[in-house]
Amino acid sequence: MGQRIGTTECCVYLWEREKANPTFPFWPKIVEFLGYSPYDPDWTLGERLTWIRRYRGLSQEVMARRLRIDPGTLARWEHGEREPKGRLLMRLAKFLDECAGSNTTA
Fold first, then answer.
1. 8 Å CB contact between 51 and 43
2. Residue 84 and residue 91: Cα distance in Å, rounded?
3. Please, what are the domains in the chain?
4. Residues contacting 61, CB < 8 A, separation 6+
5. For labelling, which of 16, 26, 72, 98 has a CA lying 20 to 30 Å from the CA of 58?
6. pLDDT (0 to 100) of residue 76
7. What is the pLDDT of residues 78-101, one digit of tens each?
8. How far apart are CA 74 and CA 88, in angstroms?
9. Distance between CA atoms of residues 75 and 88, nearest Å
């Protein structure tokens, strides 16, 4: 599996035993390898945002840039410290719709 997702078998071993976590560039390949997205529809908005960002292989900085917000704002949303409102909520909803439309697993 390691070679198929661009890492070593040792890394996969550590991930499987929860001794390390895969970084965001590996998520798209992991989902491709598994053949499904472990996204849970009962997750909070912050958990969903974090999953979508990782699934897409985006850093917080890149996703924040795409949303035209400060990376700190995205971090607060992901941690459940704040929730988007007004224009930001509309912008986020549009972004999430685009993500869902481009891939049914996200």
1. yes
2. 9
3. 2-34 (no CATH), 45-102 (1.10.260.40)
4. 71
5. 16
6. 97
7. 999 999 999 999 988 888 777 765
8. 11
9. 14
